[in-house]
Write a structure and sequence with these properties.
Glutamine Phosphoribosylpyrophosphate, subunit 1, domain 1, eight-stranded antiparallel sheet, seven-stranded antiparallel sheet, binds fructose -6-phosphate
Length: about 600
């Protein structure tokens, strides 16, 4: 959460900082600010709200300075207003921060006793005054090293100094930070996405490291303050992917491009000529893996939950799933013969990273399924399986969810085949079906009119429920999550069979209930559960797959039929109408679809 940019150049930097902040807005968008340095003065401008409010409130283009830092905020300590917005400055130091300082209360007391005055409610301001304090007695690098050691918690920092006209200091612990290299200028940024418009030459800081960025030189240091050398990576740049094209929102574009993204991913992994799956350089022997633990947050966790059903269907491996924020603090019994799989679109989610770090420290086998291959989770895993779906900008995950479940399914099929747990003919049949999945997704997309007509009912109701059994249960959870995060209405996902154990009490006349009942092994049971909610007055939206057999039930409010395929692949198709339901509900309400309130795309705080 929060996005950082810093530029040290031989020309004015304010316009480029603002452009980069616009790109970083997906990381936080409740307040924004920047500081430039000119003629020994720190020029600080800050605003509540988005980058365009900063542009409206200040004459940014005329803000002088060849060096500067900027920040978009997702509030943790202190309400989102212009005082709590970053940068925070003392008389000689200005800081932007992504993360949380856990010992800020103690440090604040210590600094107040030393005579420092605080203006904001943020934890970040202690960093500013701590550096100012340490600079009284120490040289720059020693002051930075000491300050970083005094801070508990997580941070990525960008720091400028009134008396050092050409320097930005960057530091990283727990939150991502990258350095970029350009002609007569160098950069600091939360991620390569913010820097890509300016450069594709990047160095990622690792845990505990800090750097000194000048327009013509970058130096790196470890946490002891010792100089280190780091590699420069060249990233492939494809700016076109970051464009909304003709779509009103990134989310709409990302839903519609799913046939293409999954086709690309299938091509990466499935060798249709040899009827096999290519997972190259898998670092372990198959008999070294006896169990699987899948870990993620939010939508990525739903991917893990679905994978558990596939694992159990196609292998005899023991499978556990976990929410990263729970896993990281539990007394885990680490098992040498377990494979720990981390699922994350961004590859930067703090809880998922901490869970991975814990496994690495316990010398476990770690594999990550990510979209951003330069991310911290990808870099620190033993093995990476990218989902190849291109940048996902809408905060609500859509194409990345399909990408995650696709790669999980491919991995599971491959493990099943390597473990001789699937008949070769069935394996080939499932691969053939998989290759036809993009065209089935394509055919499932055009339900817009029906869904647009249905969506006001979900917006107007007190709440709604999403029900499914088996493979459809994780999809029900995902559908409910999408609706609540975009439309701000209460929605709950439930296993259909659990309704009578409590939630059935919620059902009342006219309550919208989505029932996911594809014609799979659970179909009849789910239809019975559907009748129980209809009998209590629910307005049921049934989502099933096409079949020659009619659904035998009365009083279904609306039905959407997705394409037909083998049972394993139905979850992909069931997801599509739910993504659209959330999209159109939010559109009707006029909400900010790509940036729902209180959320951020990359959750780099715990
Ligand atoms: C919901 C959503 C979030 C993310 C979660 C994990 O639409 O996008 O629930 O899935 O914050 O993010 P990643 O996948 O980046 O680890």
């Amino acid at each position: 959460m929060c996005g950082i940019i810093g530029i040290s150049s031989n020309k004015s930097v304010s316009a480029n900082i603002v452009n980069s902040l616009k790109k970083l807005e997906y990381r936080g968008y409740d307040s924004v600010g920047l500081a430039t340095l000119s003629d020994g003065v720190i020029n600080e401008v800050k605003s509540e709200g988005r980058v365009n409010s900063l542009e409206q409130n200040f004459d940014i283009k005329n803000l002088k300075g060849n060096i500067g830092i900027g920040h978009v905020r997702w509030a943790t300590h202190g309400v989102p207003n212009s005082i709590n917005a970053h940068p925070h400055s003392s008389h000689n130091v200005s800081v932007v921060h992504n993360g949380i300082i856990e010992n800020s209360t103690i440090l604040k007391k210590f600094l107040i006793n030393k005579g420092h005055n605080f203006k904001s409610q943020t934890d970040t301001e202690v960093i500013v005054h701590l550096i100012t304090e340490n600079l009284k007695t120490l040289e720059l690098e020693e002051a930075i090293t000491k300050t970083l050691k005094q801070l508990h918690g997580s941070f990525a920092l960008g720091i400028v100094f009134k008396d050092i006209p050409d320097l930005i200091v960057g530091a990283r612990r727990g939150s991502p930070l990258a350095v970029g290299y350009g002609p007569n200028e160098n950069y600091l940024g939360s991620d390569s996405y913010a820097l890509k418009a300016m450069t594709n030459k990047i160095t990622y800081l690792d845990e505990g490291e800090f750097c000194l960025v000048k327009k013509d030189q970058v130096l790196f240091f470890n946490e002891e303050g010792k100089k280190i050398n780091k590699k420069i990576l060249e990233l492939s740049s494809n700016e076109a992917n970051y464009d909304k094209g003709d779509f009103k929102h990134f989310m709409a574009k990302e839903i519609e491009e799913q046939p293409t993204t999954i086709k690309t991913c299938i091509k990466e992994y499935v060798d249709s000529l040899n009827k096999d799956i290519n997972i190259l350089n898998f670092p372990w022997k198959i008999n070294e893996i006896k169990s699987i633990t899948l870990i993620g947050c939010g939508t990525a966790y739903h991917s893990c939950l679905l994978a558990k059903y596939w694992f159990e269907e196609l292998t005899t491996l023991d499978v556990t799933i976990d929410i990263a924020s729970e896993f990281r603090y539990r007394k885990n019994r680490f098992k040498k013969d377990a494979l720990y799989i981390f699922v994350s679109q961004s590859g930067e989610t703090a809880d998922t990273y901490a869970a991975l770090d814990l496994c690495n420290k316990n010398k476990m086998k770690t594999c990550s399924i990510v979209n951003v291959i330069e991310s911290s989770i990808a870099r620190d895993s033993n093995f990476v399986l990218p989902i190849h779906c291109g940048p996902e900008i809408g905060v609500a995950s859509t194409k990345a969810f399909l990408g995650q479940i696709l790669v999980l399914y491919i991995l599971i099929l491959k493990l099943s085949s390597l473990r001789n747990e699937i008949d070769i003919k069935l394996y080939h049949k499932k691969l053939k079906d998989l290759i036809s999945l993009p065209s089935l997704v394509e055919k499932t997309l055009p339900h817009d009119n029906d869904i647009q007509a249905i969506s006001p009912t979900f917006n107007e109701a007190k709440g709604s429920m999403f029900l499914g059994r088996g493979f459809s249960y994780p999809i029900a959870l995902e559908g409910a999550l999408k609706l609540k995060e975009l439309s701000y209405v209460h929605a709950e996902g439930y296993p259909a069979g659990e309704m009578k154990h409590g939630p059935l009490a919620l059902i009342e006349e006219g309550m919208p209930v989505v029932v996911l009942a594809p014609r799979d092994d659970y179909y009849k049971k789910t239809i019975s559960n559907m009748q129980e909610v209809i009998a209590r007055g629910a307005k049921v939206l049934l989502i099933t797959n096409k079949s020659k057999d009619e659904v035998v039930s009365e009083n279904i409010w609306e039905t959407i039929e997705v394409e037909n395929t083998n049972n394993d692949l139905l979850p992909f198709l069931l997801t599509i109408p739910l993504q659209k339901l959330a999209y159109y509900s939010a559109l009707k309400k006029g909400y900010d679809i790509d940036k729902p309130r209180n959320l951020a795309k990359s959750v780099t705080v715990e």
